[in-house]
Structure formats: structure tokens, C-alpha cells
């Protein structure tokens, strides 16, 4: 049967103005938007004529099953000319993009992917901590601490390790990382709600990483370990609350 096309738009983390120009243009053409739970509601201003459906997943909370999302995506493409699948951060980084691309390909539906800002980049920019450093930070690893089977894993595989969705593992990751070979005094930076007006950052060592748990409890968080967690300058002070940037789109713009 005739089908439309699907555009995977990476919304970026947090504030609506972190979306790319290409992503904003794609939203403007949408007939329907299937959006992740963390997408800023202000992004609706970029797709005023589209119908919005929130289908995103939230860790440890009730959310749509992946098979249900795949089915909704295929059906939406059969009912509409342009479908935007709006994903937080960058769609290709822990966004379950592969499963949805496979579902569309199996149904013979055309698609494209618009890249975006991922949480690791937002956390690094917020705190002015470059993820790579000349001569001492040559590689970065992006990982999730929790496997699909619920097993907590840690490793030493790069100069800088960035752990996504780490908020609920902060009290147990320290010992795991030390057992994997990281020194107890390795710097660790935790940033929760990176890219949002209420972003929060805190510095630790692996030996006392558990102290970060109450500071970031209940908030989406990334953990940066190793070279990328070091301040680039002694003049940089990380505040528990970062003031919002002036931008044309904010989550309050619809109120």
C-alpha cells in the first residue's frame, strides 16, 4: 500500500534551541510527530500543523514497548506523507534507532536520519570540559552502565569514559570502575539534565562517587570519568545550578 516517509530528527538534549536547523526544518514539514518523552514541549512550536504523540521510553517507568513504537511508526507512515520520529539527543546514540530503521525497511518505507547534539557533548560544553585533550585524551568511549539484562558493568577502555543513564547507578559505579582498573582518585564529573536550564554538575573522585547520588537523584544524568572530567582551567567553577541561556525557544514559551 502507498506509504509516506519517516524522518528521524535528533532533538538534542534538554532545551529546544539545541535542535539543528535541519531538524527544525524537518519538523516544519511534519504531518505527525512521534516524540520521545524527554523532548522539550516547546518544539511543538516548530510543527504547528502536526499531530503530536508521545511514545518515548523512561528508565524504570511505564513506557511504550519497542514493538509498539515500531508498529505505530509503520502505521503512521502509511497514513501520512511525512512522519517525524523525534528522539532526544542524537538518535544514533542509545536511541534504539536500529530497531526502528529495521521495521521501516521491512515495511518498504523510506527514511532518513538527522543528526543532533548528544548528552555527552552537552555536558562537556556546559562545564567547559573538552572530552578530548591534545596529547593526553585521544579517545572517548560512550557506554551505558546497565545492560539490557539489568547487569551493572564498568570498564577501562578509553582515556575518557562517558556513562549514559547513570543517575541510579552512581552509588555503585565507583567500586565497579575501580575493580575494572581505574584508580580511586580518578576524576569523575556528573552532569544531570545537561542542556536544560536547571542543569546540575558536580565533581568527584571515584572513591567518593556515591556522594553524587543525592545531588542528582531522579534526574537524567551522565557520568564522565577520566581525562574528560578534568577542568580545562583552574578558573572554571562548576555551579550546582547553571543559569539558562537566552534563546528564542524555551520550555516556558508555550505558557
UniProtKB/TrEMBL annotation:
Going by the UniProt record, its keywords in alphabetical order are:
Methyltransferase, Porphyrin biosynthesis, S-adenosyl-L-methionine, Transferase
To which species is this protein native? Pelomonas dachongensis
Q: Please list the residue ranges annotated as the Tetrapyrrole methylase domain.
A: 5-209
UniProt enzyme class: transferase
Q: What is this protein called?
A: uroporphyrinogen-III C-methyltransferase
Keyword set includes Nucleotide-binding: no
One of the Pfam families matching this protein, by short name: TP_methylase
Family matches, as InterPro entries:
4pyrrol_Mease, 4pyrrol_Methylase_sf, 4pyrrole_Mease_sub1, 4pyrrole_Mease_sub2, CobA/CysG_C, Siro_Cobalamin_biosynth, Uropor_MeTrfase_CS
Query: Is S-adenosyl-L-methionine included in the keywords of this UniProt record?
Result: yes
Amino acid at each position: 500500500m502507498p506509504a509516506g516517509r519517516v524522518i528521524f530528527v535528533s532533538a538534542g538534549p534538554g532545551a529546544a534551541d539545541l535542535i539543528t536547523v535541519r531538524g527544525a526544518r524537518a519538523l516544519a514539514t511534519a504531518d505527525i510527530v512521534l516524540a520521545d518523552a524527554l523532548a522539550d514541549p516547546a518544539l511543538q512550536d516548530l510543527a504547528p500543523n502536526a499531530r503530536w504523540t508521545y511514545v518515548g521510553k523512561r528508565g524504570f517507568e511505564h513506557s511504550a514497548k519497542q514493538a509498539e513504537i515500531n508498529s505505530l511508526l509503520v502505521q503512521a507512515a502509511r497514513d501520512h506523507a511525512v512522519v517525524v520520529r523525534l528522539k532526544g539527543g542524537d538518535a544514533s546514540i542509545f536511541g534504539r534507532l536500529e530497531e526502528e530503521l529495521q521495521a521501516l525497511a521491512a515495511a518498504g518505507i523510506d527514511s532518513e536520519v538527522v543528526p543532533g547534539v548528544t548528552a555527552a557533548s552537552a555536558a562537556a560544553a556546559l562545564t567547559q570540559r573538552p572530552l578530548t585533550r591534545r596529547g593526553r585524551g585521544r579517545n572517548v568511549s560512550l557506554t551505558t552502565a546497565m545492560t539490557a539484562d539489568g547487569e551493572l558493568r564498568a570498564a577501562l577502555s578509553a582515556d575518557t569514559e562517558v556513562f549514559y543513564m547513570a543517575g541510579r547507578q552512581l552509588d555503585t559505579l565507583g567500586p565497579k570502575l575501580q575493580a575494572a582498573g581505574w584508580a580511586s582518585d580518578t576524576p569523575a564529573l556528573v552532569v544531570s539534565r545537561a542542556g536544560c536550564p536547571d542543569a546540575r554538575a558536580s565533581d568527584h573522585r571515584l572513591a567518593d562517587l556515591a556522594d553524587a547520588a543525592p545531588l542528582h537523584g531522579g534526574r537524567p544524568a551522565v557520568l564522565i570519568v577520566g581525562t574528560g572530567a578534568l577542568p580545562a582551567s583552574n578558573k572554571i567553577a562548576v555551579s550546582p545550578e547553571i543559569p539558562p541561556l537566552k534563546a528564542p525557544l524555551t520550555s516556558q514559551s508555550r505558557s
